[in-house]
Amino acid sequence: MTEFIKIPESGEAIEPVSSFPTLFAHITQHQDRLICDNYVYSLQDFSRIQTLEFANITSGCSLTPKLVCLGHNSNALLSLVAWTGSMYTMIQKSNILNCNNRMRNLAFTEIRKDLFSKMPNQIFIKQENRDDPADHPSLFRVLIDPKNLAESFKIQLRIN
Q1: 110 pLDDT band (50/70/90 cuts)?
Q2: Mean pLDDT of all residues belonging to the chain
Q3: Per-residue pLDDT tens for 57-75?
Q4: Nearest Cα to 144, choosing from 87, 60, 75, 74?
Q5: Distance CA 153, CA 96 (A)
Q6: Can you say whether residue 96 is alpha, beta or left, with left for phi > 0 and alpha for psi between -120 and 50 degrees?
Q7: CATH no., domain 2-158
Q8: CA torsion, ordered 47, 44, 68, 131, to nearest 10 deg
Q9: How far apart are CA 41 and CA 35, in angstroms?
Q10: How many Å apart are CA 122 and CA 148, to the nearest integer?
């Protein structure tokens, strides 16, 4: 079960807002919506707006009021989706790392916007090998190329 709560500024008592019978593995807020796994909910009344056709989302980050970057649980895949006003549409989905045959096991488990950059498309990505816990995560700084995700500029900040 997943519960959403409201914490008053006074910090006195939390208030339950909504609950779902599903335990979501991933939640990303984008404007007045929540992307929970492959479902999209309104933050106003927690009604389901959309079921995304692409699954296996493990992380996400709001880039602009219209764009969201989503990480997936295999093949080092990154997606760029756009809010049309009523639903999300896929702009691109691509492998952004040049990896060896381990690529099918590589998941993007965290995506965060670079708060110190003036560029809205610069993010940090944590990449993990989901099949080998002994394989340490890597951290990348990525400048998203919205026209060609595969050509996005990447710098590995932490090496396995």
Answers
A1: confident
A2: 85
A3: 989 999 999 999 998 887 7
A4: 60
A5: 9
A6: alpha
A7: 2.130.10.10
A8: -60
A9: 7
A10: 14
Are 142 and 122 in contact by the 8 Å Cβ rule? The answer is yes
Closest CA to 114 of 41, 49, 63: 63
**Joined tokens for residue 36:** 């929970």
CA distance 135 to 46: 38
Q: Give the domain ranges of the chain.
A: 2-158
Question: Distance (Å, rounded) from C-alpha 71 to C-alpha 26?
Answer: 10
Q: Is 104 helix (H, G, I), strand (E, B) or coil?
A: helix
As given in the structure block, the two tokens for residue 103 are 């690529």
Dig out the tokens for 30 from the structure: 């984008």
